[in-house]
């Protein structure tokens, strides 16, 4: 826990709740009659309302992107290295909005919420949501906050997909789009990894068809396995080797098939255990499906340049050399399409050993490039 709040921190922050009573039509054909979005804000909205920045989170992210909820909080928000005074997203200049998406499990309406029409927990009955649905709900939150146009929409991984979708769905409402460690759609391999993770959850006896919460259980084993599979894909081989190598917990082999022997095994089990205690299984299924479904160019016969031709924003695309989940080649697909569509685009490929997780890490070259682009944005 921080004994003193760092000078470059946004400090103590409190989540806020926006309640919506108008039905939200979803891509799956269903709608939500009532829903809530939990969000945080950092910095001050200027008189012209021209300095607002939206942060879109990745699969397991949430609204708490920066600062501390209390002096007892052990760690700051998940992107604290990039948000705050003097940081790339400088809160002396920008008014930052970070939310927990619909279907999430950190306060916004999701599978663990109660359905106002039945009084029961949604569970398996919560509708499937897409990136486009999230963007539509974010636009309604922007309306509620009096923000007609974002100075920038920023996201990494699944968050980058949302940032990209904003420029397609609401081209007049985005001046700059920063798409980091992302892709224009998932590869077959990525969909396969997501399916393995989902099957780990779906085949857990305690999943109970998705209605585990009302039965007082959680599919802990399935969640642990899903997180372990995911975590392997977020790290590069080099990063895993440097962190763990083949180090054992004891000097000699124990020849036990059932217990942990290597440090990397212990680490993955710890990650799975921690994740299973804080994340909802149905939310995990929803988020991975949203990833799978994302393919904005599908409506244009797969022509991404044509799809992005409606965009009015300037773009900054960033990738990391050892990210094999969302490789630099996928970012370059976006860049090539933007160039073909005659859009202003900057591209930075950062040498980094940390794999996909690099977008969350304060790598000097990354922060330098990020700051340089954000400094160009006029408010």
From TrEMBL:
SUPFAM superfamilies: alpha/beta-Hydrolases (SSF53474)
Acyltransferase among keywords: yes
The entry's keywords: Acyltransferase, Amino-acid biosynthesis, Cytoplasm, Methionine biosynthesis, Transferase
Reaction(s) catalysed by this chain's protein: L-homoserine + succinyl-CoA = O-succinyl-L-homoserine + CoA
Residues annotated as binding substrate: 227, 357
Cellular component aspect of the GO annotation: cytoplasm
Catalytic residues (positions): 157 (nucleophile), 323, 356
Main localization of the protein described in the UniProt heading: cytoplasm
Pathway connected to this protein: Amino-acid biosynthesis; L-methionine biosynthesis via de novo pathway; O-succinyl-L-homoserine from L-homoserine: step 1/1
Keyword Chaperone: no
GO MF annotation terms: homoserine O-acetyltransferase activity; homoserine O-succinyltransferase activity
GO biological process, alphabetically ordered: homoserine metabolic process; methionine biosynthetic process
Subcellular location: Cytoplasm
Domain of life of the organism encoding this protein: Bacteria
EC numbers on record: 2.3.1.46
AB hydrolase-1 domain ranges (all copies): 51-358
Site feature location: Important for acyl-CoA specificity: 325
Family: Belongs to the AB hydrolase superfamily. MetX family.
Quaternary structure and partners: Homodimer.
Function: Transfers a succinyl group from succinyl-CoA to L-homoserine, forming succinyl-L-homoserine.
Protein name, per record: Homoserine O-succinyltransferase
Classification lineage: Bacteria, Pseudomonadati, Pseudomonadota, Gammaproteobacteria, Pseudomonadales
């Amino acid at each position: 826990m921080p004994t003193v709040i760092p000078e470059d921190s946004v400090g103590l922050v409190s989540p806020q709740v926006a309640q919506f009573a108008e039905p939200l039509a979803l891509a799956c054909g269903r709608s939500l009659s009532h829903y809530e979005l939990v969000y945080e804000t950092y910095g001050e909205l200027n008189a012209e309302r021209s300095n607002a920045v939206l942060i879109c989170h990745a699969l397991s992210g949430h609204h708490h992107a920066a600062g501390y909820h209390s002096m007892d909080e052990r760690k700051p928000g998940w992107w604290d290295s990039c948000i705050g005074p003097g940081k790339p997203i400088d809160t002396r200049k920008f008014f930052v909005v970070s939310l927990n998406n619909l279907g999430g499990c950190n306060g916004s309406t999701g599978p663990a919420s109660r359905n106002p029409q039945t009084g029961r927990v949604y569970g398996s009955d919560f509708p499937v949501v897409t990136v486009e649905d999230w963007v539509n709900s974010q636009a309604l939150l922007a309306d509620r906050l009096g923000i007609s146009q974002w100075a920038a929409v920023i996201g990494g991984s699944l968050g980058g997909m949302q940032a990209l979708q904003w420029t397609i769905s609401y081209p007049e409402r985005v001046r700059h789009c920063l798409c980091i460690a992302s892709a224009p759609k998932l590869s077959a391999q990525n969909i396969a990894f997501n399916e393995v993770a989902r099957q780990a959850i779906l085949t857990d006896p305690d999943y109970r068809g998705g209605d585990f919460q009302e039965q007082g259980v959680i599919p802990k084993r399935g969640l642990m396995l899903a997180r372990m599979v995911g975590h392997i894909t977020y790290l590069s081989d080099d990063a895993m080797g440097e962190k763990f190598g083949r180090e054992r917990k004891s000097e000699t082999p124990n020849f036990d098939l059932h217990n942990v022997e290597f440090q990397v095994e212990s680490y993955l089990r710890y990650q799975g255990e921690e994740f299973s205690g804080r994340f909802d299984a149905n939310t995990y299924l929803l988020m991975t499906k949203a990833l799978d479904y994302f393919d904005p160019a599908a409506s244009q016969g797969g022509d991404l340049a044509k799809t992005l031709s409606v965009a009015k924003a300037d773009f900054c695309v960033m990738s990391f050399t050892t990210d094999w989940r969302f490789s630099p080649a996928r970012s370059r697909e976006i860049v090539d399409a933007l160039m073909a569509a005659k859009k202003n685009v900057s591209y930075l490929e950062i040498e980094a050993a940390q794999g996909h997780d690099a977008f969350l890490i304060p790598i000097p070259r990354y922060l330098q490039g990020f700051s340089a682009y954000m400094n160009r944005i006029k408010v």
